[in-house]
Amino acid sequence: MNIAANPVIQADQTIYLKDYQQPAYAVDSVALDIQVFSDHTKVNSKLAMQRQAAGDLVLLGRDLELVALRVNGMTLTAADYQLDSEQLLILNAPAQAKLEIEVIIHPESNTMLEGLYQAGDLFVTQNEPEGFRKITFYPDRPDVLSVFTTRVEADKKYPVLLANGNLLEAGEVGEGRHYAIWEDPTKKPSYLFACVIGDLAVLRDHYVTSEGRDVALEIYAIEKDIPKCHIAMNALKHSMRWDEEHYGRPYDLDIYMIVAVSQFNMGAMENKGLNIFNTSCVLADEEYTTDAAIMRVQSVIAHEYFHNWTGNRITCRDWFQLCLKEGLTVFRDQSFSEDLQSAAVQRIDDVAVLKAHQFPEDSGPLSHPPRPDHFVEINNFYTATVYEKGAEINRMMATLLGKEKFRKGTDEYFRRYDGQAVTVEDWIDALTTGSGVDLSAFLKWYNQPGTPKLEVQGTYDAVTQSYRLDLKQSLKANAKYPNLQHLPIPVALALFNAETGEQYTLHCSALSENNVKDGVYLFDQEQAVIEFTGVTEKPVVSLLRSFSAPVNLKFNYSDDELAFLIQFENNGFNQWQATQTLIERILLEDQPAQSYIDAIKATLPAVMAKDPLLASRLFDVASEGYLASRIDQDYQPHLVNQKREALLNSLAHGLGDFCKQSYLSLDAALQNDFSQAMGVRALRNIMLSLMARQGDTQAFELADAQYHGSNNMSERLGALKVLVWNDAPQAKAALQDFYNRFKDEALALDQWFMVQAAHPKATAASIAYLTSHPDYDLGTPNRIRSVTGGVNANPVNAWSFGVQHFIELAKYLDEKNPIVGSRLLLLLTRWYTLAEPQRSEVKQALQGLQTEVKSKNVIETLNSMLEA
Ligand code: ARG
Ligand code: ZN
């Protein structure tokens, strides 16, 4: 069959970036009529199409029942088209074609949560990347932009009928049914189409843009959750202001709606004017959600809002360019969040995510460039590399340019490409022209995989009072990408006087002139030497400040130098990084723990007074999972566990009375700033768990009192973890109380599942208890993840009985929800690093699964995993 539609689908189903071709037909307008009934949904569409390039008229469609098809008023018969499971090809189509298509779909039995699906009493859509083709036949690719008019019709028991854009009219149609017609004036690709049909309450507000447009803001959720939508609403208004102030981007419609749904595969979706969110990314309230969840809600609200410009008004030419919108939007939401809490801590958290997920991904069999050049299933490429490394590339360019020039670059991007579907090259080109700085070398970051190693050596010459740095970069060879090139790496750095702790003013001609504020050296060769003059005493150098590039830094810091940086570095991120470097030495190189304990003891009081949240992060002892990601062979989970436990015990004993004293003297209620209060809560929870380690009998009493005495979820959950994970006598009653209190609060109940699944001594039986609990639900991804995430928190468990749990789930989800099934399997990606016999056992389990699965999603992931 002639598959002239592009990107070309090869026989082996792999799609290649190099095969991109312009779509043969443009769509001038779309009119949709969606009629929801209890056992089916009718979708009628009218497309005004026009030839614009060579090729056939091809519409993509999956799982659709075709009822009728007309072109320019003529009904087509089977001889006039070719239909297979993926597409509809219209033979001899005219250059101007008005298509009328009638199909029937089944949202009520759609378990994949892709396309239009029913979740409880709610019908919602998730169309990115390829869900729209499950609603109707359409050139479902991001470079086909059109204006959409949508009529939604349903039973009046669903009072809310929403779609993108502005409401044109609404009314009754008899038989207890009603309709609404929405018109979206902005051209958009089909992946941004959304509609919602259901019985929801709404929180309303409004916002006046810098251009004077009065925008109605609406957040839809079930009635009892409306009080939990205020933080999201404030974050939305804050995001709108922020994008005006930082990027000059006002909102463009008269209404902005957000809908919260409890069954959702991912975090949230930026559909034009009608975002659809996982409840976990909207609902925020101190009583029901933790501080971390509250921060996440604000950043996801901002993320989806920022997509309105970076993603929607300027979209991606094809799905290979996914990191164009995601990398830039993540960078923007990270910058936004730096204004909400301690900026250093925001950066610490973002880098921790990068190092815990993206670095391991990039060093194993699933490694791919931020812009991949081929894929089988695009859903498998919503990865840490596309999102997080994509964000880092933008951050590097922003760091190098400094605020003003970066803004000139983004202004040029919006000026040039508004209303278009573009590529990563277009982005770099606009940044280059706008800023006047050639950034073309950064394209290499998008096109090749792997985390570069950056090796640096420092030499001080007392005679010439100069300090010299020798830099070298390298990439691990990769058979699939033989032509790896060296990369432009912005190295932000500072020199400190080792005696006084003071920071030197840098004298070095090699530093970038663009970023005048910080000392940034653009290292863009394989090797380089730079020299600083006027360094009167042997300095301590602080490299890669704020993690100015996503690289593995090798610098031979002495323990004393690290201790110095923990105490004197004024860049909070690097202060934290120094603790992490020390901790890795202790845990992976068997160094004694004392240096770390002494260093934080000396530093804590000052940091606690200034930035309690940062102080709490200085206790970050790398998770066992993260440590495992640093071990490439013969990994033995129980050994890592033992070492880490030993360090935590030494820390607990080394800190002595400090723990209880701090616990008793810290009070979140005395903080008037949310970031500080968060920090105090985090510190108190840390102190409680250290006291439990000290064997302090009072620890459990204090935890129990904290559990029952607080209405704040971070405090309650922190105390519950101490009780449950230490098998305290009060644990059972507290768990029961938690269940009774929150049994109707799905997100809080997720935590109840998670705490138990994450018990260090969990067993196959205790997990079976959870998964056969009446509140466990395989149709709700959040609930599935609360248990898998809990199990995964203890690698000793994850790599024993966890393997079976993950594999059985993946097998089930392969059929019911392959997007979630495929992602779940990623928990086992590093099987090949295990010591024998575990390595072979897990490999066998994966190979067994391979013979049983059917979805492209799971097959592609398994195949890649087993290539290791
Ligand atoms: N664009 C969404 C976001 O990052 C993510 C949608 C991902 N959906 C998926 N099915 N992979 O904001
Ligand atoms: Zn996004």
Compact description:
With 868 residues, the chain is α+β, with helices and mostly antiparallel strands.
Write a concise keyword list for the protein shown above.
868 residues, alpha+beta, Immunoglobulin-like, Zincin-like, Neutral Protease, domain 2, eight-stranded mixed sheet, 26 helices, globular, disordered N terminus, binds arginine, binds zinc ion
Give the tally of β-strands.
Answer: 31
Give the CATH class of the domain at 1-199: Mainly Beta
Number of helices: 26
Small molecules held by this entry:
arginine, zinc ion
Mean pLDDT over the residues: 96
CATH topology of the domain at 1-199: Immunoglobulin-like
CATH superfamily of the domain at 1-199, by name, is: tricorn interacting facor f3 domain
* Overall shape: globular
Proportion of residues in helical segments: 40-55%
CATH-defined architecture of the domain at 1-199: Sandwich
Strand order of the largest sheet: 6-5-9-3-2-12-15-14
Main pleated-sheet profile? 8 strands, mixed
Computed over alpha carbons, the radius of gyration is 28 Å
Report, as a whole number of angstroms, the end-to-end distance.
36 Å
Derived from helix and strand composition plus strand pairing, the structural class reads alpha+beta
Uncertain residue ranges: 1-10
Can you walk through the features of this model?
The chain has 868 residues and is of the alpha+beta class. Among the domains are: 1-199, tricorn interacting facor f3 domain (Immunoglobulin-like); 200-308, Zincin-like (2-Layer Sandwich); 315-447, Neutral Protease Domain 2 (Neutral Protease, domain 2); 453-549, Aminopeptidase N, middle-beta domain (Immunoglobulin-like). Helices cover 40% and strands 22% of the residues. The chain contains 26 helices and 31 strands. The strands form eight sheets. Strands 6-5-9-3-2-12-15-14 form an eight-stranded mixed β-sheet, with no helix packed on it. Strands 17-18-19-21-20 form a five-stranded mixed β-sheet, covered by helices on one side. Strand 20 (268-269) and strand 21 (274-278) form a beta hairpin. Helix 3 (322-338) packs across helix 5 (384-417), helix 4 (343-363) crosses helix 9 (572-588) and helix 13 packs across helix 15. The model is unreliable at 1-10 (pLDDT under 50). The structure holds arginine (ARG) and zinc ion.
